[in-house]
Structure to design on (154 residues):
């Protein structure tokens, strides 16, 4: 069962990366056609529900793995959790809120001003760097330390 939860955890991270709007943000930053910008915003909004599902699966499966593997006493798990939450805060603050303001504006000059201040590199570096740091923290060959005979049968 532990291996299946690991699979779900990794698949959820990959799913989150696939539906994440950072790549769209780079296109939006360079685009000058208001209609095209609105189309890009619609793409990010369409993937929003799926993004939250994957985010929830990452958190839920990670917490479950922490219990099944008896990892809660390990500093790396807490550090990884803090980093993942910090990534989410930065993404929301510098990405989500800014993109929402861009989507809500109807004034072309306002949209241009918001796009000029928007920096998708903050999102890309935070997300990539944070995930690489989390990967580095995971102990090599991280196997559960709990007694497998106590695990629920799959």
């Amino acid at each position: 069962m532990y291996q299946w939860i690991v699979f779900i955890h990794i698949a959820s991270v990959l799913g989150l990366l696939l539906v994440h709007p950072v790549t769209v943000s780079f296109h939006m930053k360079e685009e000058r056609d208001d209609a095209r910008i609105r189309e890009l915003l619609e793409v990010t909004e369409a993937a929003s529900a799926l993004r939250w599902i994957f985010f929830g699966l990452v958190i839920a499966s990670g917490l479950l793995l922490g219990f099944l593997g008896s990892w809660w006493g390990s500093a790396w798990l807490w550090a990884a959790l803090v980093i993942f939450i910090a990534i989410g805060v930065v993404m929301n603050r510098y990405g989500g809120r800014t993109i929402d303001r861009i989507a809500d504006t109807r004034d072309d000059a306002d949209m241009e001003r918001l796009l000029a201040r928007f920096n998708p590199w903050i999102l890309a570096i935070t997300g990539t760097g944070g995930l690489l740091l989390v990967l580095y923290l995971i102990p090599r060959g991280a196997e559960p330390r709990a007694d497998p005979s106590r695990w629920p049968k799959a």
The helical segments are 2-19, 22-30, 34-46, 48-68, 75-104, 108-117, 120-137. The mean pLDDT is 85.
